[in-house]
Amino acid sequence: MNLNKVFLIGRLTRDPELRSIPSGQSVASFGLATNRTWTDKAGARQESVEFHNVVVWGRQAETVSQFLTKGALAMVEGRLQTRSWQNKEGQNMKTTEIVAERIQFGPRAANAGAQGGKQGVGAAGGKEDAAADLPTIDIDEGNDIKAEDLPF
Questions:
Q1: What is the C-alpha separation between 2 and 22, in angstroms, rounded?
Q2: What element of type H or E holds 64?
Q3: Which residues span the domain enclosing 107?
Q4: Which phi and psi angles does 79 have, rounded to 5°?
Q5: 1 in any annotated domain
Q6: How many CB atoms lie within 10 A of CB 81?
Q7: Could you please report the per-residue DSSP string of 40-55?
Q8: Between 16 and which of 30, 67, 78, 114 could a Cys-Cys bridge form, CB atoms 3.0 to 4.6 Å apart?
Q9: With contact defined as beta carbons under 8 Å apart, do 64 and 75 qualify?
Q10: Which whole-number Å values give the CA distances from 20 to 23, 89, 107, in the listed order?
Q11: How many domains is the chain built from?
Q12: CATH number for 10
């Protein structure tokens, strides 16, 4: 059995570029940065950053282009793919990229108003507006489910 699966959570390094191929299908590409922190043997904190190229196809490409901007947090689920081509000088080139199958957007920035950026919480853009949009679930409203019956 073979498996080619990638899960990444990171921030966009550039705005998505939306294009259409000759058949009319949409494709978007963007960069994603992920980081790793650890403590070395001397006790000093270390950090490394990896940069990934992500490609998204179809309707999802249009959605990504509409709602994500540079710096936005996103989770990408997909597969690795290596492409090769010849550049203008005739040299063979290769690149490995993530072909996204699913993208989940991170939380919207609290200061991104609806008027300026692609992402917006509301006209005021405040925390009160974001909290008002969150549903609350009260398990004591006459339901047959009791809190002590929940397995978690």
A1: 32
A2: helix 59-67
A3: 6-149
A4: -140, 155
A5: no
A6: 13
A7: -TTS-EEEEEEEEEEE
A8: 30
A9: no
A10: 8, 26, 28
A11: 1
A12: 2.40.50.140
CA 130 from centre of chain: 20
pLDDT band for 86, please (50, 70, 90 cuts).
very high
Q: Is residue 44 part of a domain?
A: yes
pTM of the model: 0.68
Q: Given pLDDT bands bounded at 50, 70 and 90, which one contains residue 57?
A: very high
Closest CA to 112 of 151, 67, 146, 46: 67
145 by Cβ neighbours in 10 Å (0-12 / 13-18 / 19+) ranks as: exposed
Q: Provide the CA 100 distance to its chain's centre, in angstroms.
A: 10
Contact 121, 135 (CB under 8 A): no
